[in-house]
Structure formats: C-alpha cells, structure tokens
Amino acid sequence: LTQKNSGLKNISAIATLLMGLCCDVVIFRNQKVDLISTISLCRHQLRTFRSSLLFFLFSSIALSLQQIFSLFFLRPNIFSLPQTFLFTVVYVPVIALSLMTSTHKQGDNRDEIAPKNVPSAPKRLIRRAVIYFSINFLPSLLFVSFIYCSILLVYLCVLSTSFVYFRHNCWTKLPFRNSCWMTAVFFVIFVQVY
C-alpha cells in the first residue's frame, strides 16, 4: 500500500510539473505557500514580461520606421540585409528576453492595486504608449538617420577631393583651388545640415 501511495505521489508531482511548464511558479500539493508573497512574485513577473514585450514591440516598430524613413526621404538604408536580420532575429529578442530576468525583492509591489480583467486596453494606456514611443524612440531614429547621412555626405565630399584632379596627386595639385568644387561641397553640406 505504501509503494502504491508513493507511486501516486510521483505521478502527482510529474503532473504538477507538466501543468507548470507554461509558468514560472509551481506549487506542489502539500507545500505551504504565503499567498501574499506569491501574488507579489506573480505581479513582478507580469510586469517584467510586459516591459519586455513593450521593448520588443517598440524596437521592432523603430527598426521598421527606420527602413521606411530611409525609403521615404530617398536616403540609403542604414542596415544591410544581414544587419537587419541580426537586429530583428538576434539582438532585439536577446535584449528583450534579458529584461525578464530582473530580480524580485520581497514586498516590492504589495501596495499596488491589481487591475480588473479588462477585455481591451484603455485609451489612456494606448495614448501613454504612443507618447512614450514618440519621446524615446522617434527622435533617436531621426537623429541616427540624419547623422548617418551627414557622415556619408562628408565621406563622399572627402572622397571627391581625389577626383578633382584625377590624374594628379592631391599634394601636387591642391583640390581647394577649384572654386566650383569648393562651392558645391559647402552648398551640399549646408543643405544637409539645415
């Protein structure tokens, strides 16, 4: 009878572990649990999952907008195809998954009121997410695109110095003597900056 009882306990433990595959918290049958600390731990895990998901979503939107901006403004793509693949498949998911590993201190969020089950996100939450994305991600996209194009333009201007007098060395015939080229370079850089 005791062997049969221990077999049932093993089967029950295996069933508990199988049912707990989809979550981080597993409570066994005869285990004493502090309900308040368990709720606090679950809230912490939900908060880290939510922040990880939002970071992944915002980063994916930012990468997509970066490609759209470069197409819309007729600028070269910042990322090559392998770099785009690495960002979308490796870099952003690894960073997003690492956000879920933040440690939980006992009593961190006990005074937090739990929201009720709401079938859709409230408008205030959507508005806050749009504002957060617009403040944190959008300016950096525009700045990176502008800096990338500015650096590319300066690099092209520097390369063009060797084409001013194509058959001569730069130190024998200075390219700065060509006033038309100098005016064009300053004009292009001025247009890019402003």
TrEMBL record:
Domain of life: Eukaryota
InterPro entries: TMEM94
Keyword terms of this UniProt record: Membrane, Transmembrane, Transmembrane helix
Entry's transmembrane regions: 51-74, 80-100, 130-156, 176-193
PANTHER family: TRANSMEMBRANE PROTEIN 94 (PTHR13219:SF6)
Protein name as annotated: DUF1736 domain-containing protein
Natural source organism: Gongylonema pulchrum
Organism taxonomic ancestry: Eukaryota, Metazoa, Ecdysozoa, Nematoda, Chromadorea
